[in-house]
Amino acid sequence: MFLSNHVQNLLNNQKQIFQYWMEDKEMEDIFKTYVLNTEDFTQAYASSLMEFYIQTINEEEALKKYKLISPLLQYFKQNKIKEFELYIILKSFKNSIVYYFEKNEISSYEIQKEINNIFEMNFSNILKQYSQNDNKLENQLKHFYNLINQYIIMSSTDLSGNITQVTDAFCEISGYSRDELIGQAHSIVRHPDMKDTMYQELWSHIQTGNIWKGEIKNLNKDGNSYWVEAKVLPAFNDDNVVVGYDAIRQDITAQKVLEEQQEMLTQQSKSAAMGEMISMIAHQWRQPLQTISILVQKLPLTRMLGDDISDELLEQVLSDVNIQIDYMTNTIEDFRDFFKPNKEKNEIALNELVLKAVDFLSYMLNIDSIKVNFDKPENRVISVHVNEIIQVLINIIKNARDVMLENELDHREINIKTYVTQTYAVIEIEDNAGGIPSEVIGKVFDSYFSTKHNKNGTGLGLYMSKTIIEQHSHGKLTVSNSSLGAVFKIELPL
Asked: Residue 4 gets which letter from DSSP?
């Protein structure tokens, strides 16, 4: 190629060529139209076009060349240069090189032919790439819009709250067609369960130019409800004046249904736990009531035997009765405290936590001849929802007791062990009832699943225990079998 002999010449004199280029009348008109600074353009982008030209002369691979001028094309794209204007810019650059050779008496027919060939073969490809990028961007925008229209629950309203635009996703969840929604007040999907104060707060927020976020229960055309997490924000015109409002929503109906089910299960679990607690209170009270009965009968029995009821005897009986009544009162206080809402965490020694649960069940464990072995090598203070953890411990220990009675074991033991790892305080509760069958051990934490053959189980105890440990306390509750029986492992984060 003739031009290959002049590569260094082009590099050494590119500033002069750029000057010819910028002085071209058509170039000047384009740069004035788009208010582009010729000096900034020359410094930032002109050299990349010259490098492209030289690499074309040296027959460099296309990928390497086109990578050079990507920033240049992006610059033109950002400034909305049209295709025919880009053609003029590139042609002007080619003419500047021709003019340079003529000016320096280097020009020949062969050189001009080569310059023209390079322009036709390569610069036409640049135009094609520039055009394809436009089409590609347009297609991407169309694809993006289609995704939004199909999957984003979105609507726009005027300043009065009348619907001006909706997506297909909004139509689908509301059950209305686009024609039925446009022009209607947004209250067309309002659910009667939603309070006026919520909407008043929403309007006061967005009318001052702020964004409102919240959860809204809506009503679809068929009368069914659905929940959305909404974000409502003002829409501004070019003069920064609010002309309407846009609302973007996410369907959270399934999440709300799950929360409602969770709340129902929690209430059922609390009712079941309350019943068990009342049963345990009855157990705890049985012995003191019998003692009080015997003490009270002691007075008429003394008189029947012909003896006088001395002041000492009366005081002794009253004192003993008061002791039993105090015990019963303390029992009620303990159980009343247990059912108090306990939203804040409290510090408690790990072993004290276990002992509180065992104390609650002490009468029942004694009556059923169940021995509790408590291995407590370390007594770490932890911060937990005390009553909730005690509820879990009581549930696990009581389940072990029920299985032992059901299996009619003569020797009944529960082994409790506490220890601390780097990240958790651990409580392990092991019974000697033989373990949980392998076909059901993976289901014991499922809601409404129960292994109790007498059907006294609600199937909620272990489900709620796992919820308390893992969701409320951010810990872990697992179960496995040992050589003796089931082992429930509670891990509470330190």
From this structure: G
